């Protein structure tokens, strides 16, 4: 760790240590600057591949979102929301489903406590398959960036669709951002949100023109595929995701607002 990081992590994690939905250190070894964590059985990337019921999937997402709400209420941005960083304790049953015992957002080592009115800037945060557009642009990032990533995770969990998982050739391209941000625009752009994103990153950012060029690449032969028009998907879920993945960070629903969305209100306890 860099000097002071161990103490910083202790202070940050102690502020949310009582949250049942956040994986915080339960012990430390100061001499080696080690944080000790409770073991959980698996992560959401793997567990989501089990034949879980819709109720179980929704319960996992709701529990993880409750953890994210608690982070954001403390002014903490996670910066790396992805299925690997949502850990789950569970019991197998005689059916294909599981009984959820605990859901915790993990990997708080990359989390940042932001003073009111301050943002991260210049950072390429998170994994490319779950990253927000403003993070790709290394523009101002704050709690809305986590919300965008969580919306993409929710699509993966409910639809088994990793929507930004591009081909190996595209992934190896030094301009991989071009292929992934094209999908951002295809699935989530509307005129107001797109203009808001451009305003957010500023015309001095190289991604300002890059995004404009990508948006101009769609035509009748290469049409956009707005998520809001995926009619095979539950209408309330589409509405929730549209609010979480608005390209304009200022127009995104908050984590708390998402938790209050009607789609989550229909969640039944196991």
From TrEMBL:
<keyword id="KW-0418">Kinase</keyword>
<dbReference type="GO" id="GO:0005524">
    <property type="term" value="F:ATP binding"/>
</dbReference>
<dbReference type="GO" id="GO:0004674">
    <property type="term" value="F:protein serine/threonine kinase activity"/>
</dbReference>
<keyword id="KW-0808">Transferase</keyword>
<dbReference type="GO" id="GO:0044773">
    <property type="term" value="P:mitotic DNA damage checkpoint signaling"/>
</dbReference>
<dbReference type="GO" id="GO:0005634">
    <property type="term" value="C:nucleus"/>
</dbReference>
<dbReference type="InterPro" id="IPR000719">
    <property type="entry name" value="Prot_kinase_dom"/>
</dbReference>
<feature type="domain" description="Protein kinase">
    <location>
        <begin position="1"/>
        <end position="264"/>
    </location>
</feature>
<protein>
    <submittedName>
        <fullName>Calcium/calmodulin dependent protein kinase</fullName>
    </submittedName>
</protein>
<dbReference type="InterPro" id="IPR011009">
    <property type="entry name" value="Kinase-like_dom_sf"/>
</dbReference>
<dbReference type="Pfam" id="PF00069">
    <property type="entry name" value="Pkinase"/>
</dbReference>
């Amino acid at each position: 760790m860099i000097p002071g990081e161990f103490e910083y992590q202790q202070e940050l994690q102690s502020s949310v240590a009582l949250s049942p939905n956040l994986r915080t250190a339960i012990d430390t070894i100061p001499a080696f600057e080690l944080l000790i964590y409770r073991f959980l059985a698996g992560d959401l990337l793997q567990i989501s591949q089990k034949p879980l019921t819709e109720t179980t999937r929704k319960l996992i997402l709701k529990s993880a979102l409750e953890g994210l709400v608690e982070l954001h209420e403390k002014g903490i941005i996670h910066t790396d929301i992805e299925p690997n960083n949502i850990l789950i304790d569970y019991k197998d049953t005689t059916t294909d489903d599981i009984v959820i015992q605990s859901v915790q957002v993990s990997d708080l080592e990359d989390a940042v406590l932001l003073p009111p009115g301050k943002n991260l800037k210049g950072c390429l945060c998170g994994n490319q398959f779950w990253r927000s557009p403003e993070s790709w642009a290394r523009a101002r990032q704050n709690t809305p960036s986590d919300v965008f990533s969580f919306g993409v995770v929710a699509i993966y969990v409910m639809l088994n669709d990793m929507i930004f998982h591009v081909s190996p050739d595209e992934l190896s391209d030094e301009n991989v951002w071009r292929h992934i941000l094209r999908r951002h625009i295809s699935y989530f752009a509307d005129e107001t949100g797109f203009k808001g994103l451009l305003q957010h990153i500023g015309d001095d950012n190289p991604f300002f023109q890059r995004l404009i060029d990508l948006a101009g690449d769609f035509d009748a032969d290469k049409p956009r595929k707005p998520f809001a028009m995926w009619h095979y998907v539950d209408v309330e879920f589409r509405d929730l995701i549209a609010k979480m993945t608005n390209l304009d960070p200022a127009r995104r629903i908050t984590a708390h607002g998402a938790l209050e969305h009607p789609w989550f209100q229909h969640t039944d306890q196991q």
